[in-house]
Amino acid sequence: MPAVDRAILRLGAAEVSHGEEPGARGAIIGEYTKIAEVLSTDDSPRFVNGLLQRLVDVRGLLG
Description:
Elements: H1 3-18, H2 25-39, H3 44-57, H4 59-62
Helix pairs in contact: 1-2, 1-3, 2-3
């Protein structure tokens, strides 16, 4: 995994996990997907999107 992907995922995971507005999570995921599209590999946007979406899906189970 590229280092830039790890950095994007760290920030995105923190923001979707500790963000205040549940309705804004889709926009947050979209922003980090766009960042991955610009800064990383061709496969990274789909990976970042999928992982952050899964984190939102299991958010209630984590704590």
